[in-house]
Specification:
Elements (H helix, E strand, L loop, with lengths): L10 E3 L2 E3 L6 E5 L6 E6 L3 H20 L2 H17 L1 H12 L8 H15 L7 E2 L5 E9 L2 E5 L5 H14 L3 E5 L6 H13 L6 E4 L3 H10 L3 E7 L2 H13 L4 E5 L5 E4 L5 H13 L11 E5 H18 L18 H17 L1 E4 L17 E4 L6 H4 L6 E7 L2 H9 L7 E4 L3 H10 L5 E3 L19 E2 L7 H4 L1 E9 L4
Helix pairs in contact: 1-7, 2-4, 2-6, 3-6, 4-5, 9-10
Bound molecules: nicotinamide-adenine-dinucleotide.
Amino acid sequence: MENIAHIPTRMLINGELVEASDGKTFAVHNPATREVSAHVPEASADDTNAAVAAAKAAFPSWSALGGAKRARYLKRLAALICENKEELARLDAISMGMPVSTHHYAAAAATNFEHYSEAWPSIQGQASVNTPGMVTMTLRQPYGVVALIIPWNAPCLFLGTKSAPALITGNTVVLKSSEKAPLAVARIAELVKEAGFPPGVFNIISGHGIPSGQVLSRHMDVRVLSFTGSSRTGKLIQEEAARTNLKKVILELGGKSPALIFEDANLEKAVAQTYFSVQLNSGQVCMANSRIYVQKSIAAQFVEAFKAKSASSTRPGNPLDKGTNHGPQADEVQYRNVLAYIEEGKKSGTLAQGGGKTAVEGTKGFFVEPTVFLDTPETARIMKEEVFGPVVIINTFETEAEVVAKANDTEFGLYASVYTRNVNRAMRVAKALESGYVGVNCTSPTTGIDLPFGGYKSSGQGREGWLYSMDNFLETKSVIMQIGEE
Ligand code: NAD
């Protein structure tokens, strides 16, 4: 395999790097070439149960260890991920096609382990003497076994943002990677072992939604399940949790994010940033601004500038080449989905740029051209559903009330942005948008490091972030103690 001497595939269960117990594997293909990159273990129900049992057995001593000692393992893992970040980028490139030039996710994972290794002193309850004759207090304690199910579009990032806060708070973890991008995660499993985590504390399995994802959702010993992925799967997980042990479920789901461009906006900046938002990772980003609304008076100018920016900035090619910034779609299923949406888009709106596959010399990869549609009815399927490809719809508006209503007319609410130089309007619109995140004169993927991230409506429930994620993994216990005379 190109430039990659060792392709890791094994799972980490109870401190051992293992194959599936029944020997089953599934093939992972390089989406730039369609060649097989690796055969990866398909965790069986037994393997998944074994990982949960190992996590359960490891919980008492891990939770009793105390924050400062747990932190040492996280720090070691942060350093190992950082040392191996280029290899991790290459492993994602040959499984889900993200160009190495835009892969900052391993570094982000390392930063998360580093951050949470310092965050344990803030695991605190409260105390009061407001109740006469009593001292009252709250204790913040770990839940036990936490399951983490992650998608393929940024595996290292989600591994870091979820497992670091779960572990530092004293929980033990079973993480399932996506069947489309298990290789970088399998490498991190090796690094977890190298960092010396006690057996069972951090288990990592690979496989499809069924069986392993479903077993985790139904498991009576899993107390929290944190999921990032599609709204469809999120609903299934929520159902399984409700039918079994009412485990706490945190859901980070899909989006159909709008960008609102008013006539007084900095046009050049708005064009560059909205283009980047929907092109990054070939449009396979939950918060990509896939709907752009431009005020009518500047629409023609905006569209021309957007097309020119896309034509001059998009560099499709082998994701392993440092000059490439536009990789293939993650696999054949994603590729066919995106092309089908594009065909439907041609019927509902006006195609202004792109509209099909990109031929990249010397490859048979799943490349799709950055595509722009204009004048698409608000009710069209392509306006309502997440395409998860480099496809943007640019529509127009005349008034603020009109564009806010259009932006909010969706089941999703992950990220919205507004471009204007009018501060009052910026804040009015930010307040009116039904979205977990709002960018003013900026758009996704711009985020604030200490802000919560999460969706309104069907984009999810719960929030993640440096000041928020530890709460997801801590129970609150009230203790009331009488201090009056006997
Ligand atoms: P997906 O829902 O198909 O899969 C996500 C994970 O769920 C995978 O590990 C998969 O194996 C597992 N899974 C599938 N069926 C399951 C089941 N029945 N029970 C348990 N687990 C199951 O999503 P995907 O295609 O991997 O990822 C893309 C989606 O993720 C997009 O909708 C995107 O918007 C969303 N996403 C959201 C965020 C966010 O933070 N809100 C971030 C990235 C991606």
